Amino acid sequence: LYEKIATDLAQRRWSLAPGFLADTHWLRLAERARRAWTEGELRPARVGQAASSALRPDVRSDWIGWLEPGVTRPELADYLARMEDLRLGLNRSAYLGLLDFETHLAVYPPGAAYSRHRDRFARDSRRALSTILYLNEDWKPDDGGALRLHLADGAREIEPRGGALVIFASDLEHEVLPARRERLSLAGWFRRRAQARDTA
Ligand code: OGA
Ligand code: MN
User: Fold this and answer.
1) Residue of the nearest CA to atom 5 in ligand 1?
2) What does each C-alpha distance from 110 to 46, 56, 123, 134, 184 come to in angstroms?
3) How far apart are CA 18 and CA 36, in angstroms?
C-alpha cells in the first residue's frame, strides 16, 4: 500500500486509500470526534500561522482540536502509530525525508466550508504532505462536503467517506465544499526540515 501511495504521489501528487483504517477503528475515532465536539473541546479553526493567525469564518468554518504527541486514548494512539508506519513506509519507498507529523480533529458543522487554499505556508515550508482521514458513515453525494483538489489537469472531487485516507502534496490548492450534514475528519501533515529561505 505504501508503495502505491508513493507512486501515486510521484506521478500525480495525490493518492486515495479507501479503507485505510478498519471500520471498527475509524468508528471509534468518529465517536471521539463527536464527543470532543459535544464536550466543548474544539475551537473555531484560524487562518494563517501563530501570532498572525485570525478567525475568518468566511474562509474556513470548521472546529478543530490538535492531538498532543503523548495521547493515551487507544483509538488516537493507534491512529498516530498507523501514521508513523505510513511516514516510515513513504520514506523507504520514496526517500521523502519526512521528519514528523502534526494532526488535528476537525468538525465541519452543517454549512461549514474551507475556501480554496494551500496548506504550506509562505514563510514555513515544512509541510510536505497533507493527509485527511474521513470519519463519516454512509456519506451520500447529496451530502456535499467533497474535498476538491485543483490539479494541473483539472479539478477532482473526493467524498469524505469513513475510513478513507487522502494524501496530497501540501502546495496543491484545494477546498472543502459546504456539507449539508456534520462532517468529521482527522487532518494531518507530514513535515520535512525547514528550508534556509524560511523565516522564523
Ligand atoms: C485542511 C483541509 C480538507 C478536508 O484542513 O486544511 O483542507 O477534506 N481539509 O477536510
Ligand atoms: Mn487544507
Assistant:
1) 187
2) 18, 17, 33, 16, 11
3) 25
- 121-152: per-residue pLDDT in tens? 888 889 999 999 999 999 999 999 999 999 99
CA proximity to 103, closest of 131, 142, 63: 131
Express the helix, strand and coil content of the chain in percent, nearest 5 each: 25, 35, 40
pTM: 0.95
From the CA of 117, how far away is ligand 2's center (Å)? Answer: 6
Q: What are the pLDDT digits (tens) for 182-199?
A: 999 999 999 999 887 787
What's the 85 CA to ligand 2 centre distance in angstroms?
Answer: 22
Span from the CA of 176 to the centroid of ligand 1 (angstroms): 6
Give the number of residues written for the chain.
200
Residues with a beta carbon under 5 angstroms from ion ligand 2: 119
**Residue type at position 76:** L
Q: Which amino acid appears at position 200 of this protein? A: A
* Whether the CB of 159 sits within 6 Å of ligand 1: no
Strand positions, DSSP E, 67-193: 100-108, 114-117, 127-134, 147-151, 154-158, 165-169, 173-176, 183-191
Please provide the DSSP assignment of 32-47 as one string. HHHHHHHTT--EE--B
Whether 107 lines ligand 1, by a CB cut-off of 6 Å, is: no
Classified as helix, coil or strand, 19 is coil
